Amino acid sequence: MIWRSIIGKLWATIIAIVTIVLLFLTLFLLQFFENSNIQQADQQMEKIGVKAGLLLEHAKGSNVEDTLLSISDIADVYDADYVLIVNDQVWSGPKKSAMAGLNRRFFETDATLRQALTNNRTANKIGNFKMTTNHVKKNQRLLIVGVPVRTSSGEHGAVYVIQPVQIAQNALDQSKKLIYLCAGLSILLTTFFAFFLSTRIGSPLRRMRKAALQVALGNFDITVPVITRDEVGDLAVAFNNMREKLKANMTALNQEKEQLAGILQNMADGVLLIDTKAKIVASNPPAEHFVYSWNYEHDHDPAQIQTPDDLRDLLLEVSEDGVQKMREISVQGRIWVVIMKPLYDQNKIRGAVAVLRDMTEERHNDQMIKSFVANVSHELRTPISMMQGYSEAIIDDIAESAQEKKDMAQIILDESQRMGRLVNELLDLAKLETGHFQLDRRNIELGDFFRHVVTKFSNLVNDAGIRLQANIDLVDGKTFLLDPDRVEQVMTNLIDNAIRHTRKDGVVAVEARFEDELLHIFVRDSGVGIAQEDIPFVFERFYKADKARTRGKAGTGLGLAIAKHIVEAHGGEISVNSIKGEGTTFQFTLSQDKASDR
Ligand SMILES: Nc1ncnc2c1ncn2[C@@H]1O[C@H](COP(=O)(O)OP(=O)(O)OP(=O)(O)O)[C@@H](O)[C@H]1O
Ligand SMILES: [Mg+2]
Hints:
Elements: H1 6-57, H2 64-77, E1 81-86, E2 89-92, H3 97-100, H4 104-109, H5 114-118, E3 123-133, E4 136-150, E5 156-164, H6 165-216, H7 231-266, E6 270-275, E7 280-283, H8 285-297, H9 309-321, E8 325-331, E9 334-345, E10 348-358, H10 360-395, H11 402-434, E11 442-445, H12 446-455, H13 458-464, E12 467-471, E13 479-482, H14 484-500, E14 507-515, E15 518-525, H15 559-569, E16 574-579, E17 583-591
Parallel strand pairs: 12-14
Antiparallel strand pairs: 1-2, 1-5, 3-4, 4-5, 6-7, 6-10, 8-9, 9-10, 11-13, 14-15, 15-17, 16-17
Helix pairs in contact: 1-2, 1-6, 6-7, 10-11, 11-15, 14-15
The structure holds adenosine-5'-triphosphate and magnesium ion.
């Protein structure tokens, strides 16, 4: 674990460097010390040799033994011994090196040391020599320096000063100990330094790592303290700056996203985002409504909403051509215009965005405007041509009997009344639509009012074999502020419609009750019903759902449009529910509150 931290690596590196440096230093120093110690010992021993030579040379008259004692004293100071060879005589120092094996024969046979005896030259040698100490033979490393001497009597010889190398070695061992101590101390210091660095550099770095992880999780409020004024401190400052900028950018991004989402949610048009696999990625409520309606129409499980096939096809076309495409899709009787545009990720198409507009009203309005003139002329043409035909028949005396003439005149009267009614209704509608009319509200006793309206139809229902019920107990005896003529007009149309669309033995029921201070009126029938696709349009002028109507039962298609205007003028609403083949219920409310009037 420690090797994975910067501090661990730093520590290991420093220790490695220190170890290598110390190793080399130790090697070189030891080499150097050894050389210089031996050199020093060599020089000292040579000096002793020279001194001994001088003592021997100037020892005129004095005892040889005294001179040798002096030489021994000098050698003893340096822990050394000597062997003096003059002619056949051999003297040895207090350590008796000559007896131990370094005898005349030894010096004479050694090629280097012989130089002092024979060639009158100083000779020195380091080596392992066999010595016999206390009758035990052992190898000993010695430094031997031979100096040629001349006695006062002029005899030549040589003095060999002998010192065990061990003495020089002792100094070296001391130096080694010192170096080891230094190495130990520096490793200790390095470790301490590494831990100091660990708190100084490592802990701010660790804190920054923690903060970075937090920022990655979306927590932008975290800051790292700037403790030092070095690179680590600069890094902390840079980190804090980065965090602040990130926060600002993220906030801006989120705001933009919210704005866009808000716009999308409140758009009247539907917007759909689909990926290349035609999966819906994003949508707004109108688009969801479209997709839901399509799935409903195609009997798909509402829990598993699917992308409409038309959109899949359109996506295929858009992906192939790479350009915007438009298509009209009809769902549940409504017409949607879909404009789809490809979305690019650099050069690759990554999906498409579709804008959906419900064009049902516009299409219908266009149709209505076109058909209005046609409708009016058509409605007028039938009575006019009938009137023309019958009046011609009367003029040409085609009718034989007076009764026949009377019947013809009756038809002309009926048709002219029908024309009059149409014109009146048109005028009425024009007035209602432009708002140029006044309600004449009065307090009306509701029981009497409904009974009067229903009674008007008694003959008609009797002829048609239909039962007409009035469930008005809940409002009987109560008064309500309304325009009786206008409301009667609405009721008359609704009951008339119901009777006209109900077969023999059917039932038409009128019901009234109060709810939430509103007067609710229902006109139910067990008639033929209205087809699903016609329901949204029955309140439009000239709209006739039963296109195959029989001549006798034909109306103008203006009744419900007028009724809608009258109800709305009373601050109420009118609606219809119907199941084809089972019956229809028209329902409208009336309000007494004049503030809700139009
Ligand atoms: N109770 C009903 N059952 C079935 N269809 C109905 C019913 N009421 C209305 N409709 C349909 O709605 C259409 C519009 O009705 P509306 O009252 O506006 O016109 P109309 O009855 O044809 O003519 P008008 O009332 O002007 O004489 C009718 O033509 C009919 O197709
Ligand atoms: Mg009608």
